[in-house]
Each structure stands twice: as structure tokens, then as C-alpha cells.
Specification:
The complex is a heterodimer of chains A (268) and B (400). In chain A, 29% of the residues lie in helices and 29% in strands. By secondary structure, chain A is of the alpha/beta class. In chain A, helix 3 (94-108) packs across helix 4 (128-136). Chain A is globular. Helices cover 26% and strands 26% of the residues of chain B. In chain B, the strands form six sheets. In chain B, strands 11-15-10-5-8-9-16 form a seven-stranded parallel β-sheet, sandwiched between helices. In chain B, helix 5 (146-160) packs across helix 6 (173-184) and helix 7 packs parallel to helix 11 (383-399). The chains are: A alpha/beta (268), B alpha/beta (400). Strand 15 of chain A pairs parallel with strand 22 (377-380) of chain B. Bound molecules: flavin-adenine dinucleotide and adenosine monophosphate. Residues 286-288, 312-315, 326-331, 343-345, 347, 349-350, 353, 364-366, 369, 382-384 of chain B line the site of flavin-adenine dinucleotide.
């Protein structure tokens, strides 16, 4: 089974904070991390390989520093890593990213299963998966929480939905985006860490992908960010201290004055 | 870097942008900001610069076709087991609000309804105020067979040519709409919290949180149609329902392809019965509870106000409460009317998931806990005293 996992390098959000004075994002000189959801995709790829044989290829599109994310993925057990990097790719929105990833997947593939995270924590869109599948002309399933098994060219899945989950059978090849419940990622092994340092990471540039400039990067992106701002913060939160009894009284009075009902329905 | 520019004359070399850049893509060279190849054009520096010395140069896209043939607003109807999804009135509410903004040049609000035996839902859609229902009611369309749904929906959009398509920020919406957008080769903005029409250009201004809610971005889709967006659940005001309102049904007649999926079953998850993302009142507990037993405090308060129980990751990781209750970056994003955080410090990753709540109330014994910086109301105190007191006063008020 040929498996691909797409990972995105995102800012290590733990360290991204809001500057209280300017209200903007601050980063304290931290490296990027692998998007947390993508680690579950990677782990699931490795598990599929362990069960059904095959290889796991990790792909990441971004500036040259994504190489570190790819090497980290290899330390967890991916077989090979491919970096998709070119200045002309900068400013890609989800559609352009998906088009570029799809072109790379086509060159490296065909893959039986392509795994992605449910969303990247910087953009929070979750659109790249379904859009990539469409570019490849294969089906996709989002928010997968369990792969029950693969039989011939059919895969049985559990997919999270509001209020429950759906069990379904889908054909291969397929693109899946996964949620956190799907597994617990393993730590890097010593052997993996060694390999990660040694194996070459392949680089695909704009030329290799042979994509028209019109469809990559900023020019291939139908959406354009015209304004970025910090959300207004609640001003002057009322904080009560002192004896619990008085504090609770003050709180309930303040809520009442502001017309905020504390009861959704009668407490039963 | 193409696309982004530092205006050298205006740049003071203050370095604020360096700190704002989440990608370490700015350096100081000869006391001026210099954008390196690491830049992803996210725009955080543009916002951070007090001198307005960084601009993202507008790349002027050339439309592939005549955009004026696209007109009107289309709402994607999500339904399950013969009922409209709770987000549908919210999407219609958003669409009607946009309709109002096209002053003097009215637009039609239509609802795209695809399924088997769904005709009856048209009445309800009219009651919510849509002008037209574009109906494809044919046998063999499973509401979970997304592959054929995406095909049929994209086809309807191609034929009917609305300028705006809105869908729900639900699991289905966030899967189906990207698939459609890629088919239509157009832009899609995920999980919008604010939509408006630019009065000058008539374009859809789509505003959404990014970086886990730390920044907001306003996005346009200028050169392709339709302009597509999903809307975040519980943010848009639902359209009021008026029984008896009518509209026009436009019948669509497409051959239904066979789905590649075999839908086996939908398993209702009782532990998620009270879905946090739909709850109006949430009481959440964190590490401050100290012991799994003490979740009873949270449950009791939740019961008193008719709310749902949430938790921080620390509480979930400790095994005090199952994962579906987790609120935050790696858990659920919630938008209740009231969110009560008890014994939760309010780490950014937690804030991300609950910042959108209408009213945030924090109970924490540490007056410096970050949760107080985003709380609208707070009590500094021991939750083991405050919560029982709160329950007592709420109950006595109810009786009195
Ligand atoms: C990639 C990543 C993703 C993450 N995702 C999430 C997420 O989705 N959701 C999430 O919640 N976290 C998430 N976290 C973890 C987050 O950073 C915090 O560690 C976590 O939210 C802390 O939980 P807490 O507030 O319950 O615990 P703590 O930070 O330990 O806070 C406990 C609070 O309880 C107060 N307290 C203690 N005793 C009492 C008492 N008797 N009465 C009143 N107050 C008391 C203390 O003053 C303290 O403020 C994530 C972290 C990372 C790195
Ligand atoms: N630049 C990228 N390189 C590789 N994979 C990506 C990239 N961007 C997004 N992805 C994948 O798409 C998923 C969803 O991302 P997003 O649509 O940006 O929220 C991520 O979890 C990744 O698996």
C-alpha cells in the first residue's frame, strides 16, 4: 500500500501570544512545529503500513525551513520526505495549496491512501484536504476517527459527525482527514532519529511540478486577505473578590443589571 | 518577497513587526525591516506596524469570465433524517442580512435543496424567508453521500449562477463546500463570523478568525464566482420563522450518479448527546478541581442552569472526564450564551475554543490567572466555596 501524509509546519502556538500593549501576535523566537493534527495523520499512516505493508511518504509545502518538519516526521517512522518549495508558491490560499499538493502527489504517486490533519491550527480552514482530493479526482472523507480495515480496494471508516459517527465503506484511492481520537502518536525512536538525520529530503520546485504560474501562489489564489486585525477584547471585565457570599451576590446583581439570564431553563 | 512590501521611507526600524511575525520571516537590515522567503503573506506584520510601513501589494486578478452574469445569494441546505440542520436558519439569517445590504438593487435569496423525499422541507425554508427553493428531489440521494452531493450541487451552481454561496460551518458543510469550490475553481472562506457587502464594489467581505482566534482576517474573492463561505455555528442570528410565507420552487432535473460510498450506519453517541458546540450554557472545569470526584461541582452547577459540561485539556488529559468535553484548540470550539470557567487558568489554547462565547464568567482563586483578561465577569475565590454558594443563591432566587 502506497501511503502519503501531508504535513504543514505551523508556528508553535504555545509561544504565540498577544502583546498586551499593541494587541498583536508575539512570538518569542520559536521554531515552527508540525501541525498537531498532522501527527495523528502520520501515526495512522505508519499503522496502515505496519498492517498492510507498503511505504509512507511525507509531503510538506512551504518555505525551506519545512525541511525540519519533514525530518521530524521521518524520525517518527515515515520512509521518505518530500519538500514542495518555491518562491512562486508563497501566498497560496487553500485552492492554490491544494492544486500544488495535488500536482506533487500525482508525480510521486499514485497513492492508495492520502492522509491529512482535520485542519491546520494557523489558518483553521480544513479545506486543503477536500480541495486536494477534488484536484486529484479521488473521493475524500473528513474527520475520520477510526480506520476499521482495508479489504481489497475498499476501506471501512468511522467518521465523526455532530451527535455521533458514521460508518461507511469507501473505495481506494482515497484522501482522509483525521481527528485526534484516531490514535496516540508514538514518540520518535532512536533509529528513526538517526535515519532522519541521514536520509536525503527530495525537493520539488515549481519547475518539477510543471504548473502554470497562473494557478500557484498569490496569482492562483482566488481569495485575498485585505485586512488583518485583532478581535476586540471584552473591555473592563467585572471581577468580584471577597467573601463567596457577597461576591456571588454582586455577580448575580451585575448579570441581572446587564440583562443576562443565568437560567437556560428551570433547573431540574 | 513578491506581494508584500516594506515602504523604506516610512519604516523606522522599530522591530515590532519582527516580534509579530509568526514565521520569523522578517529581519532588520540596515535598520529597516526586510521580508525573507519564509514569508507566507499572513499579514500579521501589516497589523503590527504602527507606521503603516508594510503593505501587501494588491495583485490585480483578471476574471476568467463575465462576472455580472452571477446574481443572487444561495444557501446550501443541510438536512439529516428529514429535518433541517439547526444551522440552516442561521445561514438564511446571514443571507437575508446580506440581501438587505444590496440597497436599491435587490437580490434573490435561494436555498439549494438536494435529497430524496425532501420536498416538504421547502415549506419550512420559505417560512424562514427564502425567495426560491432550487429543488432536486430524486430517489437514491443519501444525505451522507457527499461525492454525488458535491457533483449535483456544483452543477446546480454552474447552471443557476448565484454570486454568493453560503454553507454551514458544520462537519458536512466544511467537507462539501471545499469540494464544490475546487470543482468550480473559486475561493472559499471557512467558518466566517461576520459577512457584509462592500457598499462600493458589491463584493462579499468575509471575516473570520485565524491563528486560533488571535487575529481576525477579512477576505475578498474578487475575480471568480461564486464567492463562497461557510458560517460558524451559533454566530449568525437565525432568521425568524413565519409559517405561511411562500416562494417559488425551481425544479432541477439532473440524473443522479451512483455514489462511490456505501453508508453502513449512523451511530448516535450518547456521550455527545448534549453537543457542546450547540449548547447555550456551558460550565467547564479544569485542573483546579484537583480530583475527578469534584466534577460533581461542575455537574451540579450545570444542572442548576440547564447547561452542558465542558473541560480544559488538563482535566481531560488527567482522565477526569472524556475527550468529547474538551474545549479549546485541540477540542471543541464553542459559542454559548454563557461560559463559566471554573478552576481553569485560561491558556491561549483553551481561550481559542471559548473566546466567542457571548458572556464569559471565570471562577479562579488566582487573581492573575489569564482567564480574567478575557472574562466579562469573574469571582476570585475558592471554587469549592463559590460554586455551592452560586448554586444556593440561584436556587433560592428561583423559588423566591
Ligand atoms: C498544542 C496544544 C494544544 C492544546 N489544546 C488545548 C485545548 O484544546 N484545550 C485546553 O483547555 N487546553 C489545551 N492545551 C493545554 C493548555 O496549554 C493548558 O495547559 C490547559 O488549558 C490548562 O488547563 P487548566 O486551566 O485546567 O489547568 P491549569 O493551567 O493548571 O489551571 C488551573 C487553574 O485552577 C485554579 N485553581 C486551583 N485550585 C482552585 C480552587 N480551589 N478554586 C479556584 N481556582 C482554583 C488555579 O489558580 C489555576 O488558574 C493545549 C496545549 C498545547 C501545547
Ligand atoms: N502547505 C502544506 N503542506 C502540506 N500539507 C498541508 C499544507 N497545508 C495544509 N496541509 C494539509 O491540509 C490539512 C488541512 O489544512 P488547512 O486546510 O490549512 O486547515 C493539514 O492538516 C495538512 O495535512
Amino acid at each position: 500500500m502506497k501511503i502519503a501524509v501531508c504535513i504543514k509546519q505551523v508556528p508553535g502556538t504555545t509561544e504565540v501570544q498577544i502583546n498586551p500593549e499593541t494587541g498583536t501576535l508575539m512570538r518569542e523566537g520559536v521554531e515552527g512545529i508540525i501541525n498537531p493534527f498532522d501527527l495523528y495523520a502520520l501515526e495512522e499512516g505508519i499503522r496502515l503500513k505496519e498492517k498492510y505493508g507498503g511505504t509512507v511518504t511525507v509531503l510538506s509545502m512551504g518555505p525551506p525551513q519545512v525541511e525540519s518538519a519533514i525530518r521530524e516526521a521521518i524520525s517518527y517512522g515515515a520512509d521518505e520526505g518530500v519538500m514542495i518549495s518555491d518562491r512562486s508558491f508563497a501566498g497560496s490560499d487553500t485552492l492554490a495549496t491544494a492544486g500544488t499538493l495535488a500536482a506533487a502527489l500525482r508525480i510521486l504517486g499514485p497513492f492508495d491512501v492520502i492522509l491529512m490533519g482535520r485542519q491546520a491550527i494557523d489558518g483553521d480552514t480544513g479545506q486543503v484536504g477536500p480541495e486536494t482530493a477534488e484536484h486529484l479526482g479521488i473521493p475524500h472523507v473528513t474527520e475520520v476517527k477510526m480506520i476499521e480495515g482495508v479489504e481489497g480496494n475498499r476501506i471501512t471508516l468511522r467518521r465523526m459527525l455532530e451527535h455521533g459517527y458514521l460508518r461507511l465503506k469507501a473505495p481506494l484511492p482515497i484522501l482522509l482527514t483525521v481527528v485526534k481520537e484516531i490514535n496516540t502518536p508514538r514518540p520518535a525512536s532512536f533509529k528513526g532519529k538517526l535515519r532522519a538525520r541521514q536520509v536525503p529530503v527530495k525537493i520539488l520546485s515549481g519547475k518539477d511540478l510543471d504548473l502554470a504560474p497562473k494557478i500557484v501562489g498569490l496569482s492562483g489564489s482566488p481569495t485575498r486577505v485585505i485586512r488583518v486585525f485583532t478581535p476586540p477584547k471584552p473591555t473592563g471585565g467585572k471581577v468580584f473578590t471577597g467573601e463567596p457570599k457577597e461576591a456571588v451576590q454582586s455577580l448575580l446583581r451585575a448579570l441581572k443589571e446587564a440583562g443576562i439570564p443565568m437560567n437556560c431553563k428551570n433547573g431540574s | 518577497m513578491d506581494g508584500i512590501k516594506v515602504i523604506i521611507e516610512t519604516c523606522t526600524g522599530c522591530g515590532l513587526c519582527l516580534r509579530a511575525c509568526p514565521y520569523q520571516a522578517i529581519e532588520l537590515r540596515e535598520k529597516k525591516a526586510w521580508i525573507t522567503d519564509n514569508c507566507t503573506l499572513c499579514g500579521a506584520c501589516v497589523e503590527a506596524c504602527p507606521w503603516k510601513a508594510i503593505v501587501i501589494a494588491g495583485w490585480k486578478p483578471i476574471p476568467k469570465e463575465d462576472l455580472s452574469q452571477y446574481r443572487g445569494i444561495c444557501v446550501m441546505v443541510e438536512h439529516r433524517f428529514g429535518e433541517l440542520s439547526p444551522i440552516v436558519p442561521e445561514i438564511i439569517g446571514a443571507a437575508l442580512a446580506l440581501k438587505q445590504q444590496f440597497k436599491g438593487d435587490p437580490r434573490t435569496v435561494s436555498a439549494l435543496l438536494i435529497g430524496s423525499g425532501v420536498r416538504a422541507l421547502s415549506e419550512e425554508l420559505f417560512a424562514y424567508g427564502v425567495d426560491e427553493v432550487w429543488l432536486l428531489d430524486k430517489p437514491g440521494i443519501d444525505p451522507f453521500a457527499e461525492d454525488i452531493l458535491a457533483d449535483l450541487a456544483a452543477r446546480a451552481i454552474r447552471d443557476r449562477k448565484p454570486e454568493i454561496v453560503l454553507g454551514g460551518g458544520t462537519v458536512m458543510g466544511r467537507s462539501l463546500l471545499p469540494r464544490m469550490a475546487a470543482k468550480l475553481r473559486t475561493g472559499l472562506t471557512a467558518d466566517c463570523t461576520e459577512l457584509s457587502i462592500d457598499p462600493e464594489t458589491g463584493l462579499l467581505r468575509q471575516t473570520r478568525p485565524a491563528f486560533g482566534g488571535n487575529i481576525m482576517a477579512t477576505i475578498l474573492c474578487e475575480s471568480s464566482r461564486p464567492q463562497m463561505a461557510t458560517v460558524r455555528h451559533k454566530v449568525m442570528k437565525p432568521a425568524p420563522k413565519e409559517i405561511g410565507r411562500t416562494g417559488q420552487v425551481v425544479e432541477l432535473d439532473y440524473k443522479v450518479p451512483k455514489s462511490d460510498f456505501e453508508i453502513l450506519e449512523f451511530v448516535e453517541d450518547t456521550s455527545q448527546k448534549l453537543d457542546l458546540t450547540e449548547a447555550d450554557f456551558i460550565v467547564s472545569g479544569g485542573r483546579g478541581l484537583g480530583d475527578p470526584k469534584n466534577f460533581s461541582y461542575i455537574e451540579e452547577l450545570a444542572r442548576t442552569i440547564g447547561g452542558t459540561v465542558g473541560a480544559s485539556r488538563a482535566a481531560v488529559d488527567a482522565g477526569w472526564i472524556p475527550y468529547p468535553h474538551q474545549v479549546g484548540q485541540t477540542g471543541k470550539t464553542v459559542n454559548p450564551k454563557i461560559y463559566i470557567a471554573c478552576g481553569i487558568s485560561g491558556a491561549v489554547q483553551h481561550q481559542v475554543g471559548m473566546k466567542g462565547s457571548d458572556v464569559i464568567i471565570a471562577i479562579n482563586k488566582d487573581p492573575n490567572a489569564p482567564i480574567f483578561s478575557i472574562a466579562h465577569y469573574g469571582i476570585v475565590g475558592d471554587l469549592f466555596q463559590v460554586i455551592p454558594e452560586l448554586i444556593r443563591q440561584l436556587r433560592s432566587k428561583e423559588q423566591g
